[in-house]
Amino acid sequence: MKNTIVTQLDPKSAISEAFRNLRTNVHYTNIDNQVNLLQITSSVQGEGKSTITANYGVTLAQSGKKVLIVDCDLRRPQIHKIFNISNTNGLSNVLVGDNKMDKNIKDTKVPNLFVLTSGPIPPNPSEMLDSKRMRELILSLKDHFDMILLDSPPIMPVTDGLILSQIVDGTIVIVSLGSTERDALKKTMDSLEKIGANILGTVINKASSKAGYYVNYEYEYK
């Protein structure tokens, strides 16, 4: 996969600055309740959630935070491809008790940034993500990292993303300009709201400007 971690390769670019703005906005979204466990999702596949998650994770790590990205997309995982690391073992192994969590967390080339890849694709992703073991794992991880980002499956095709929204401090929905359908986005937001998910906002991806490709953070969806 082509290296899409712009925040690592070109930290002075307009794209990197957009991610720093996202970092600031999320930090001040809810001052009373600190957001340390964040879900990043989308309506459907192909809207850039994994790329956004990776770049956001780099930006957080560059600020001095100890950050973990967990690939919770147990159907079409992408994080291991973006960081060019092995996915032989990962989250699915830990959840079924095959491996210990600390042996599966991998270093990246970015200081302070770590990754727990998805591991082998299981036959029952929803059941695994909705398990007691998953909740216990996330709680234990929060004791070791300043910020945890869950790269979540999209909301529309399966229930996985809705399940994860119940265990995080907040959810960000990625919107790909020009490809995300308005009806799909509305259904996504409605589904999250119905189960009481804490929606922090949306990130507009693939929007064109004079500076080129960038991301833009919106506080709320209307």
3D architecture notes:
This protein is of the alpha/beta class and 222 residues long. Helix content is 36%, strand content 19%. The chain contains ten helices and eight strands. The chain has an eight-stranded mixed sheet. Helix 2 (14-27) packs across helix 3 (49-62). It is globular, with a radius of gyration of 16 Å.
Low-confidence stretches: 209-222
Q: How big a fraction of the residues is strand? A: 15-25%
| Strand line-up across the major sheet | 3-4-2-5-1-6-7-8
Mean pLDDT: 86
Largest sheet: 8 strands, mixed
Regarding CATH, which class?
Alpha Beta
How does the helix and strand content classify structurally? alpha/beta
Primary descriptors:
single chain, 222 residues, alpha/beta, Rossmann fold, eight-stranded mixed beta sheet, 8 strands, 36% helix, disordered C terminus, P-loop_NTPase, AAA_dom, ATP binding
